[in-house]
Amino acid sequence: MTGSRTTLPGTHVTDHAPCFGDPDFAVADDRWKSGEDLVAICKPVLYVCGGCPYRAACIRQVAPAKSGFTGICGGRIWLNGAIVQALPDTKPSELPPPVIRKSCGTAAGSRAHRRAVEQQCPRCEPFYRPGPNPLDEEDQEGTQQLELPDFP
Ligand code: SF4
Ligand SMILES: [Zn+2]
Prior knowledge:
By secondary structure, the protein is α+β, with helices and mostly antiparallel strands. The protein is about 25% helix and about 10% strand. The radius of gyration is 16 Å and the shape is globular.
């Protein structure tokens, strides 16, 4: 979805977008409690993004990672600005361009791109590893998470 409307906070994109004004795309906070609830609402309509020509524009306009967006944007289901599910044909090139940081060219630089949900820069690309899915963390709530250091 692109182009926020004040009357429907969180709804994106142009009024030509197939999702325009659909409450299952910009999901109101009172409709879900867990990531699982959210996916149950969004997954049945995620296919609509499959044929949408605005995917990259949608992500650019909504900036889901920065805005902490929850709902569907650009072929992905987002939970508080993190991707929890995506259509199989989504491409990294649909994400915003990378911000170049001092850490670029290292695993930490790659993680910074990943956390910002932006493209990897060419120097960080070789270090890219997919991050944990927030939904998996939800499953393990209450169990202790151990973050292992990255080895080069
Ligand atoms: S990519 Fe999906 S959420 Fe974005 S405008 Fe298209 S249909 Fe809507
Ligand atoms: Zn980089």
